[in-house]
Specification:
The complex is a heterodimer of chains A (177) and B (211). Chain A has 177 residues and is an alpha+beta fold. Helices cover 31% and strands 34% of the residues of chain A. Chain A has a five-stranded mixed beta sheet with strand order 1-2-3-4-5, sandwiched between helices. In chain A, α3 links the parallel β4 and β5. The N and C termini of chain A lie far apart (66 Å). By secondary structure, chain B is an alpha+beta fold. In chain B, α1 crosses α2. The chains are: A alpha+beta (177), B alpha+beta (211).
């Protein structure tokens, strides 16, 4: 059966499916308890007055022979624009996920090429992201297009550490008097 | 004794911020030329139609007459941050650059600027802040741990470790150029203008996939 992929910008109605796919991702993640975001939050944060993230979804369209088309979202990339004072505009890949059946197809590469177009159009000079140690698939995926792991692949002194703090954990130390 | 204010950067500060960036590069043991961003870029990206970043500066407002004259019109430090997203935890703030010129260190300006950035981003709805620190910067790494931040790269359990992955420089340029090869498959040339707004539906030819 012939099928094709359509890449398009996500719309608010896609949030339910994106949320489900994110939950699929948590099964791989070693810290599933950290997943808190609700569908309503994704809808408000991505499609409200101020869009806090951008998202491209990949739909797989299959023709069932009776001029019927089945369409299913089988992957997505969530990203934000950011900045590096030293160099300029940045694109942060927040999450990139493809369902099992559609991995090892061209889809991953096509999603990256879509990002390449976005990067060109917006005069972005750098793409970055955070990848879990256990996610060797993702690390290989980005390495294949020339990305460097600044946490391990550079001379030791220059290695970069990713720090994060929730408001809860730092509020008492950082609150202004 | 000097006294300082922490305030939002203004477009006029871009010249001095650029100078401080060059000092920052040298401080991190690179050449000043490592700063490929320009004053024009800072003005366009920070104060133009779309704010790609927010910036706070530390300004020295009064000082002992025995101190040498202030460099940089009184601006002695800066912090660049912007808003991002975590699919799991929602709105967050990225602290992208923080620097205080050598003569004015030791006055807690870094921490004060972080406090303001945290307060502002909290007000915008962020529950989390994140940033990147170099391995050699042990004092900074210790400071951040003391204030309650977690180093996700330096985790004992491999399963919890996070890596900072970057695509820039020559490989980035090749990557961006490769996208152009697909632009005719992705969309007609008249649609290319719409790519910036991400509003065009991109249909991929079957033969591209089924190889």
């Amino acid at each position: 059966m012939a099928g094709k992929y359509i890449l398009r910008e996500a719309c608010i109605d896609d949030c339910r499916v994106i949320h489900n796919l994110l939950q699929e991702l948590t099964k791989y993640d070693k810290k599933p308890e950290e997943y808190e975001n609700k569908i309503e939050t994704l809808m408000a944060d991505g499609f409200g007055e101020q869009a806090w993230f951008k998202c491209i979804v990949a739909e797989y369209v299959e023709n069932n022979g009776n001029t019927e088309e089945s369409k299913e979202i089988v992957g997505f990339v969530m990203y934000t624009f950011g900045y590096d004072g030293w160099k300029g505009r940045v694109l942060n890949i927040t999450d990139l996920y493809i369902t099992q059946e559609h991995r090892a197809t061209k889809l991953g590469h096509l999603i990256l090429m879509r990002l390449a177009l976005i990067v060109e159009a917006n005069k972005v000079i750098k793409i970055c992201g955070i990848v879990s140690d256990w996610n060797t698939g993702a690390r290989r995926f980005y390495s294949a297009v020339g990305a460097i792991d600044y946490s391990t692949e550079v001379p030791e002194a220059q290695r970069q550490h990713y720090f994060a703090a929730s408001w809860e954990s730092i509020k008492d130390n950082l609150k202004t008097t | 004794m000097a006294s300082y204010v922490i305030r939002q950067a203004r477009i006029e500060d871009c010249d001095v911020i650029h100078q401080l960036l060059q000092e920052f590069a040298v401080h991190e043991k690179y050449d000043a030329e490592k700063i490929t961003n320009t004053i024009k870029g800072l003005k366009r990206d920070g104060f133009g139609e779309r704010a790609w970043f927010h910036c706070l500066v530390s300004e020295c407002v009064s000082y002992d007459k025995n101190m040498s004259s202030l460099p940089h019109n009184g601006v002695v430090g800066f912090l660049v941050f912007y808003y991002g997203y975590d699919a799991w935890q929602g709105k967050l703030a990225y602290m992208s650059d923080i620097f205080v010129t050598e003569k004015h260190r030791g006055n807690g300006l870094g921490k004060k600027m972080m406090q303001q950035a945290a307060r502002i981003s909290r007000g915008a709805g962020c529950q989390k802040m994140q940033w990147i620190v170099s391995e050699w910067n042990v004092p900074a790494r210790n400071f951040y741990k003391r204030i309650g931040a977690e180093d996700y790269t330096d985790q004992e359990k491999e399963a919890h470790r996070q890596h900072y992955i970057v695509l820039d420089g020559k490989d980035f340029n090749s990557f961006a150029e490769a996208g152009a090869k697909y632009s005719s498959s992705f969309a007609s040339s008249s649609d290319m203008n719409k790519i910036k707004d991400n509003r065009c539906e991109v249909q991929l030819a079957e033969e591209l996939i089924m190889q």
